[in-house]
Amino acid sequence: MTGRQVFHLPSPVCVETRSVRILLVALLAGLAYPLTLAPYHLGWLMPVLLAVPVRLSIGASPRRAFAAGYVWALTGFAASFYWTYLSLHDIAGLPALLAAPLTLLLPAWLALFPALALALAARWARRSGRPTGTWLLAFPLLMTLADWLRGWVITGFPWGALGYTQVPDGPLAGYLPVTGIFGLSWMVALTAAVLAWLFWLRQTGNTRPQRRPIALTVLLVAALWSGGVALKQREWTHPVGKPLTVSLAQGAIPQSLKWDPDAFGLTLRVYAEQVAAARGRLIILPETAFPLMYDEMPAQYVNALRDMAAAKGAELVTGAPTRLADGRYFNSVVSVTGREQRYSKDHLVPFGEFIPLPWLTGWLYRFMDIPLSGFTPGGTQQAPLTLAGERVAFNVCYEDSFGEELIGPAREATLLANVSNMAWFGNSNAAWQHLQLAQTRALETGRPMVRATNTGLTAAIDHRGQVLAEMPQFTRGVLEVTVQPRSGLTPYMRWGNLPVVLAALAGLALWWGWTRRQGRKNR
Prior knowledge:
Blueprint: H1 15-31, H2 45-57, H3 62-80, H4 83-91, H5 96-110, H6 112-128, H7 131-150, H8 176-179, H9 181-204, H10 211-231, E1 238-239, E2 244-250, H11 255-258, H12 264-277, E3 282-284, H13 299-311, E4 315-323, E5 329-335, E6 342-344, H14 358-361, E7 385-387, E8 390-396, H15 403-412, E9 415-420, H16 430-445, E10 449-453, E11 459-461, E12 467-470, E13 477-483, E14 486-487, H17 491-495, H18 498-521
Parallel strand pairs: 2-3, 3-4, 8-9, 9-10
Antiparallel strand pairs: 1-14, 2-13, 4-5, 5-6, 7-8, 10-11, 11-12
Helix pairs in contact: 1-2, 1-3, 2-3, 2-9, 3-5, 3-6, 4-5, 6-7, 7-9, 7-18, 9-10, 12-13, 15-16
């Protein structure tokens, strides 16, 4: 896999024409990116799509590799996360003239990471004179770090990482309890690199010197995919206690009415009826179910909810804004029954829940209607809530995008729970992609997860990442589910992302050092 390879690329008649053709191919491959995610789940397609910019980068200059990767990723992320436009324009009321470029801003930022991975690989391949090893060894590690970094830098946005394309039913999903999502990213990137390299060799007809590394790499990829199937049969956690009945409320309050004072009576009536109808031992209402501070809620109404739940022997929690005496306020989950307990969201959404760089971006809020956009983070060290005899680790909205942030509370919990308000994204793919994130966290932790959302998808997920039950979007009702609490630690819960990140850094350091030594020997 490390032998020198001389490139024999055809000389283009026109550099501009070739460049346009390369970018067009990358764009078309990027357009298919959403098909690999929920709700389509064509995960097998991702290695093929990623192989396109890799193939375009083999033998290319770093600049051309960056361009191919950037166009591919920009198109893919824009097509996958188009729903940010719905949030900005349709819900927040931002004029289209501002909403459209801001919608592209997120994909434009995220696309830098895979583009830089391709550019670095192209640079190393040229400088080292060992393109085979660079593309088959170094590039998958670079892409793994790219996925990890874009889920961490500037608060992070890991949606659409390569590994998510394999959740929940792809063969590689069996590795999630061991490596977490970024281990799957490496496997997908390695598979794509092998496909691209095989295609390049077939085009150039230079396969004879490469037979041994090709065979070894193909065997490795086959072993990884089959190993994932085998690991799916492994139970990393064990049942604890009796199955728990849970009632998940879906109020289906349109975002246009949620903060309307005239519609407040509707909100109170809907959730009172749903609590009265609930049959579970644990009743969960969605994120910010009530559009005012919890301490401002009508005391008579709160007492009525508490009495209704207590009469059935149930415990009730709700999403609600809370505040401290010093004026700070939080996006919280509050226990209505029993002793006072709460969880406050820690990983806030930029622009939606807090204002990043207010001196630079604050002016935008003159054009948007986003209530309570100045939340305070709740802190990382928050214990699970004790409810209905179980330890429940809550997360709010897109916090379940960040696997490593959930494993601390999950270690002490027997059940995971998410509350969300997906009304911000209309009838888009966002709710399905969010459900896919929750399925990933259930697999990584070996814990079931229940989700109460305002407009959908309200669902229950078992410890294998399979949806046990779900409620259709934009319908009003209570989803009654039974889940089996579980205990025990998966390898990922013990170590988080650290092994994968360290392995990627060590692998790149070793490859770089070895190629430099070989280069000095050949001088």
